[in-house]
Amino acid sequence: MRSDLSRRRFLGGALALGATATLAACGYQEDTGGSGTSQAWSYTDDRGRKLGGDRPKRIVAQVTAAAALWEFGIRPVGIFGPSKLPNGEKDPLAGPIDLGKVQSLGNVWGEFNYDRYVSLEPDLLISVMYLRDELWYVPAEQAEAVEKAAPTLGVDLAGVSMPDGIEKFRTLAKALGADVNTPRINEAKATFERAGQNFADAAKTVNGKTALLVSATKEGMWAGNAQGFPSSKQMAEAGLTFLEPKAPGDGNYWEQLSWENAGKYRSDIILLDNRHGNLQSEQLKASYPTWRQLPAVRAGNVFAWNPETPFYYEAATEQLDRLGSSLRTV
Questions:
Q1: Are 148 and 22 in contact (CB under 8 A)?
Q2: Selecting from 3.40.50.1980, 3.10.450.710, 3.40.190.10, 3.40.50.2000, what CATH number does the domain 20-179 have?
Q3: C-alpha distances in angstroms, 207 versus 146, 202, 214, 283?
Q4: What are 299-304's contacts with CB under 8 Å, separation 24+?
Q5: Which residues neighbour 220 within 8 Å (Cβ) at sequence distance 6 or greater?
Q6: pLDDT tens by residue, 255-307
Q7: Is 115 exposed, middle or buried (0-12, 13-18, 19+ CB in 10 A)?
Q8: Residue 178: partners with Cβ closer than 8 Å, 6 or more residues away
Q9: Low-confidence residues of the chain: pLDDT under 50
Q10: Cα radius of gyration (the chain)
Q11: Which pTM does this prediction carry?
């Protein structure tokens, strides 16, 4: 999302697409305009690719997708993308995934163990997309080989609100054979919806005040576009007013600011990126004078926020509840 290579950006070229004949041989369908015979599984991904044939059983998924599908009962055999922190603990992005029951193909950007991928004999690879047709965490130089090994499916999350993103995965899980209407899932959804309403009520208590998304490192501060992140887009739709960066780069997600210019956007509230590797509030107050001068910091209105909140009900509910409670203290 930012431009540093370790966290990676929402920016880059589109993945090369294989020839139509190759795609058909790998389990894609050509659009013939008719349904023909019924299929055990049929799905059109967000690139417009039609998949069909036998329902996939051996699925490899990028961590964001794997965590979302896990809640609905889909159990990938392999994952790729951040699942463990440097200290060995589970990355929050992995959410409910049982890491002892899946094979990891890579934990950082640019790391995708193709030989291990093939050894898993995958029926389908699933990844999210933040840019047109780019499968997140599939290295561009390996994309063609990955496409030939098994069909791929892309879930576009660019500019999608959290409820809509979760619903995308619910629909996909159903197509993959999951029962997405169990009492547990329906209760989790209802709890999430109540949390959304409670957050909207909390947002009314700060009417007239502004919030700013911030990510911070030693190299500088980043001001985020609230419409670009599913969790903040939901909060904006619920009534929280955000200051939007005037010159966002990097795929229209972040505007980079030097520490000397940290005061460019002076909001009443800051939602601070709490992902591993980013500076947190106490570190910033101790070492960055321009941070201490910000109105939200002086008022004590800096609250932790995860730009990559996993797309499952429990994680989304927890963040809404926590931030809603924080707004009521402003």
A1: yes
A2: 3.40.50.1980
A3: 49, 9, 20, 30
A4: 299/268, 299/330, 301/268, 301/269, 301/270, 301/329, 301/330, 302/269, 302/270, 302/272, 303/269, 303/270, 303/271, 303/272, 304/271, 304/272, 304/274, 304/280
A5: 256, 257, 258, 259
A6: 999 999 999 999 999 999 999 889 999 999 999 999 999 999 999 999 999 99
A7: exposed
A8: 69, 72, 73, 74
A9: 1-26, 29-38
A10: 21
A11: 0.85
Q: What is the pLDDT of residue 248?
A: 65
- Which helix (H) or strand (E) element contains residue 129? strand 124-129
The answer to whether the beta carbons of residues 191 and 260 sit under 8 Å apart is: no
Each domain of the chain, given as residue ranges in start order, spans 20-179, 188-327
Given phi > 0 = left and psi -120 to 50 = alpha, else beta, which region is 33? Answer: left
End-to-end CA distance of the chain: 28
Six-digit token string for 159: 């500019």
| Length of the chain (residues) | 330
Q: How far apart are CA 265 and CA 246, in angstroms?
A: 10
- Separation of alpha carbons 320 and 323, rounded Å: 5
Query: Contact 138/113 with Cβ under 8 angstroms?
Result: no
Helix (H) or strand (E) holding 215: strand 211-217
Give CA–CA dist 9/135, Å, rounded. Answer: 13
Which residue type does 295 have?
P
- Per-residue DSSP letter, 309: -
| Helix (H) or strand (E) run with residue 143 in it | helix 143-149
CATH number for the domain formed by residue range(s) 188-327: 3.40.50.1980
* C-beta of residue 27 within 8 angstroms of C-beta of residue 63: no
The yes-or-no answer to whether 20-179 and 188-327 have a common fold is yes
